Amino acid sequence: ADRSKIRNFSIIAHIDHGKSTLADRFLELSGLVRRDKLQKQMLDSMDLERERGITIKSHPVRLHIGDYVFNLIDTPGHVDFSYEVSRSLAACEGAILLVDATQGVEAQTVAHAYKAMEHNLAIVPVINKIDLPSADVEGTKRAMSQLLGKDDIDPVLVSAKEGIGIEELIDRLVKEIPAPNGDENAPLQALVFDSFYDTYKGVVSVVRIFNGQVRVGDRIRFWASGLESEVTEVGVFSLKMVPTESLEAGDVGYVAANIRDIREVPVGDTMTSAVRPADAPIPGFSAMKPMVFASIYPTENEDFERLRESLKKLQLNDAALVFEPESSEAFGPGFRCGFLGLLHMDIIRERLEREFDLDLILTSPNVEYHVLTRSGEYIEVRNPSQFPDFSEVELVEEPYVRGTVVVPSEYVGSVIQLCEGRRGKMLHMEYISQQRVLLEYDLPFAEIITDFYDQLKSVTRGYASFDYEHIGFKEADVDKIEVFINGKKLDALTLLAPKSEVLRVARQVASNLKHTIPKQLVEVVIQVKAGGRIVARETIKPLRKDVLAKCYGGDVSRKKKLLEKQKAGKKRMRQFNQVDIPQEAFLSVLKAD
Ligand code: GTP
């Protein structure tokens, strides 16, 4: 292909600002799909994604419009997958910065725009939803120019829904986004910005070729993993995968090379030739790391092996999922799993339950702690119950994020109060429009995964948007909180909390458990231990006798109904010390009231 006629770009936008709708218009224009055939939001392919209305995986698509080839590289919309956003942007020369005229610049707009600027991308500003009466084009334009640090921007005004302004946008993409450069005769240098597992082809690497070319039969090498293999197929993404003879500098496409383990082709790695390797990899690679950890137990021990097989199957297509077997004193065998974030965790749990029909208990998620012991040993603690004895601990570190909040000015006070209460440190605050303020905070990630987002929504009546990125580990001062049910320790409920908060958290845990563990035949005593002593206690009175009598008396059909109800009620419930512990007990444990 003539490289001067290629444009590689992404659309960066806050959730619901119309990215998928705009992508649909491009697909139509390219003739890939007709409007009446167009399934709503073609690019979101997984069912789960469509149901949740979010884009999880990147799907590039090659569009022929006029004389040009546009490679539209989709970016995941959720902060859990922000590393993938960054790698997708690295595959582009330009980006559409899409802002909903009725909403204005939001947290994700800011976070993604910064990333695009870091990658030196040509940014084409676009204001969407101009068909709506509440569209504020002028205000949105001002906020966008402030964000981009330019006095005078000339945004393209579109309605993705009505198809207004799309041709003009195409012209602007051609003019303002540079064609890719590179040398097709140089050694192969390709960025792997996504990968997935295909039953027939094996691992398929989604690549942007920066230099050189690749064709069937070539021997390739992956820089970070060192894996070498022979190419079995190369091609481009139309709506389906279409094999081609080769891929050259400037192209976006896929390479299959009979690879079986997706973890050997990490996103961000450089693919080169094994015969004539490039001098250097494409910069910016860092291995994707799980940031959130939780244990998964089958509610029936006999399902343990099936759970292992199911996790393995999910891992085939998800290099970010990690798990290892562990054994809880309370629940027996299960798996300690690592996820990118809470959404990723939720997706895995849902897929295990839906696609593999498993009934599970998932423990409350926690972050990883780095611990240096007095004897000089360094430990990465991913399970609070395995935290070493505090008398042996020299130093603890926990992960931090840099968070961006955008909020109407009347809620600034509440946001500050929330962030300070979550051990946040303010870095920056500015007005991005007359009514809206942007705040930047460094916060412990542990605070984010304990219902920060719900609290933020609640104190701002849903008007705040939020985005964050991981910035590394900082010193922490934590204490262990342990839960005893009728005198026996339930290790799966052990958690860590900041020392200054430990009493409050312990009481909260006790109270939350009291409200989520249902009444039982026996009395349930909940004790919570912190700093080595019991600091909170709650009791759940047993079911009353007459309630029981009602349950077990009565006619046969009622009895049957009741039994069925009980069986349904058993779902996501696990016995411990003769007490039924429901899933909600784990999920609620850290919720503030
Ligand atoms: P995520 O995939 O969740 O990030 O959302 P998205 O950014 O892809 O947004 P999507 O395209 O799903 O659009 C969100 C909503 O806005 C949908 O209900 C669209 O129909 C609507 N929408 C998109 N563009 C326009 C537009 O130009 N005008 C109007 N009135 N509605 C629009």
TrEMBL record:
<dbReference type="Pfam" id="PF03144">
    <property type="entry name" value="GTP_EFTU_D2"/>
</dbReference>
<dbReference type="GO" id="GO:0003746">
    <property type="term" value="F:translation elongation factor activity"/>
</dbReference>
<dbReference type="Pfam" id="PF14492">
    <property type="entry name" value="EFG_III"/>
</dbReference>
<dbReference type="InterPro" id="IPR009000">
    <property type="entry name" value="Transl_B-barrel_sf"/>
</dbReference>
<dbReference type="InterPro" id="IPR006297">
    <property type="entry name" value="EF-4"/>
</dbReference>
<dbReference type="GO" id="GO:0043022">
    <property type="term" value="F:ribosome binding"/>
</dbReference>
<dbReference type="InterPro" id="IPR035654">
    <property type="entry name" value="LepA_IV"/>
</dbReference>
<feature type="domain" description="Tr-type G">
    <location>
        <begin position="4"/>
        <end position="181"/>
    </location>
</feature>
<protein>
    <recommendedName>
        <fullName>Elongation factor 4</fullName>
        <ecNumber>3.6.5.n1</ecNumber>
    </recommendedName>
</protein>
<dbReference type="InterPro" id="IPR035647">
    <property type="entry name" value="EFG_III/V"/>
</dbReference>
<dbReference type="InterPro" id="IPR004161">
    <property type="entry name" value="EFTu-like_2"/>
</dbReference>
<dbReference type="InterPro" id="IPR027417">
    <property type="entry name" value="P-loop_NTPase"/>
</dbReference>
<keyword id="KW-0472">Membrane</keyword>
<dbReference type="InterPro" id="IPR038363">
    <property type="entry name" value="LepA_C_sf"/>
</dbReference>
<dbReference type="GO" id="GO:0003924">
    <property type="term" value="F:GTPase activity"/>
</dbReference>
<dbReference type="GO" id="GO:0005525">
    <property type="term" value="F:GTP binding"/>
</dbReference>
<dbReference type="GO" id="GO:0045727">
    <property type="term" value="P:positive regulation of translation"/>
</dbReference>
<keyword id="KW-0342">GTP-binding</keyword>
<comment type="similarity">
    <text>Belongs to the TRAFAC class translation factor GTPase superfamily. Classic translation factor GTPase family. LepA subfamily.</text>
</comment>
<dbReference type="Pfam" id="PF06421">
    <property type="entry name" value="LepA_C"/>
</dbReference>
<dbReference type="GO" id="GO:0005886">
    <property type="term" value="C:plasma membrane"/>
</dbReference>
<keyword id="KW-1003">Cell membrane</keyword>
<dbReference type="InterPro" id="IPR000640">
    <property type="entry name" value="EFG_V-like"/>
</dbReference>
<feature type="binding site">
    <location>
        <begin position="128"/>
        <end position="131"/>
    </location>
    <ligand>
        <name>GTP</name>
    </ligand>
</feature>
<dbReference type="Pfam" id="PF00679">
    <property type="entry name" value="EFG_C"/>
</dbReference>
<dbReference type="InterPro" id="IPR000795">
    <property type="entry name" value="T_Tr_GTP-bd_dom"/>
</dbReference>
<dbReference type="InterPro" id="IPR041095">
    <property type="entry name" value="EFG_II"/>
</dbReference>
<dbReference type="InterPro" id="IPR005225">
    <property type="entry name" value="Small_GTP-bd"/>
</dbReference>
<keyword id="KW-0648">Protein biosynthesis</keyword>
<keyword id="KW-0378">Hydrolase</keyword>
<feature type="binding site">
    <location>
        <begin position="16"/>
        <end position="21"/>
    </location>
    <ligand>
        <name>GTP</name>
    </ligand>
</feature>
<comment type="function">
    <text>Required for accurate and efficient protein synthesis under certain stress conditions. May act as a fidelity factor of the translation reaction, by catalyzing a one-codon backward translocation of tRNAs on improperly translocated ribosomes. Back-translocation proceeds from a post-translocation (POST) complex to a pre-translocation (PRE) complex, thus giving elongation factor G a second chance to translocate the tRNAs correctly. Binds to ribosomes in a GTP-dependent manner.</text>
</comment>
<dbReference type="Pfam" id="PF00009">
    <property type="entry name" value="GTP_EFTU"/>
</dbReference>
<keyword id="KW-0547">Nucleotide-binding</keyword>
<dbReference type="InterPro" id="IPR013842">
    <property type="entry name" value="LepA_CTD"/>
</dbReference>
